[in-house]
């Protein structure tokens, strides 16, 4: 595959999004209070207060926005942040904890109970529609143009056969299996190899290998 891509002139990539996530779960005694907290977080003043608090904890991490979801009296808050060149989970967790403390003291939610700093609405190391749709980390689109003669000489196939295979396997086959973000042949192999070679957390391959192959 690499030989074929290089023979065609290499690949071009575009960074489409950049935002690592952490989603604490907080709870309240009543739905009314949980709903009030959600409305405050979704408001302009709530977003600004939390951003100011979060950003004050790091020279690199910057809160982009928050997405909230209510399940009974449990409130899930998905912080999406930039983290420089680091994955940045430690700096994000530090910022989240401080922001929640400010929410409690300055936002008027002293009755809030912090259940967990990570409530799986992030969501890391598990297949999830949330990550497939909204992204987690860096989103990248890559393009490689491989001439027909290279497909034949290097990949031992032809363009029409590859296009047919991609539709039948990567698109229709994955849809039949109910795949979430798995519309590819083996993107996980490539991501896992890079993560292991660069010392990244291999468990994050689960969401990092989400991609769709088009031809």
TrEMBL record:
What does the record give as the organism's lineage? Eukaryota, Fungi, Dikarya, Ascomycota, Pezizomycotina
What does the record give as EC number? 1.1.1.34
Q: Looking at its record, which EC class is this enzyme?
A: oxidoreductase
- UniProt protein name: hydroxymethylglutaryl-CoA reductase (NADPH)
Q: Name one Pfam family in it.
A: HMG-CoA_red
Q: Which family does it belong to?
A: Belongs to the HMG-CoA reductase family.
Keywords from the UniProt entry: NADP, Oxidoreductase
Keyword Oxidoreductase in the entry? The reply is yes
- Molecular functions per Gene Ontology: hydroxymethylglutaryl-CoA reductase (NADPH) activity
């Amino acid at each position: 595959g690499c030989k074929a891509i290089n023979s065609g002139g290499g690949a071009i990539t575009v960074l489409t999004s950049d935002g690592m996530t952490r989603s604490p779960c907080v709870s309240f005694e009543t739905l009314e209070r949980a709903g009030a907290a959600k409305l405050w977080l979704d408001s302009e003043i709530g977003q600004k207060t939390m951003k100011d608090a979060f950003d004050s904890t790091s020279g690199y991490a910057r809160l982009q926005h928050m997405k909230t979801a209510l399940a009974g009296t449990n409130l899930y808050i998905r912080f999406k942040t930039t983290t420089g060149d680091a994955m940045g989970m430690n700096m994000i967790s530090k910022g989240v904890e401080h922001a929640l403390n400010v929410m409690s003291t300055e936002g008027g939610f002293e009755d809030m109970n912090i259940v967990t700093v990570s409530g799986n609405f992030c969501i890391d190391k598990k297949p999830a529609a949330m990550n497939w749709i909204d992204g987690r980390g860096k989103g990248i689109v890559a393009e490689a143009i491989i001439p027909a003669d290279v497909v034949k000489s290097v990949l031992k196939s032809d363009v029409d056969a590859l296009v047919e295979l991609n539709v039948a396997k990567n698109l229709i086959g994955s849809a039949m299996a109910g795949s979430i973000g798995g519309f590819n042949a083996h993107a996980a192999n490539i991501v896992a190899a890079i993560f292991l070679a660069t010392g990244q957390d291999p468990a994050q391959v689960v969401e990092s290998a989400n991609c769709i192959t088009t031809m």
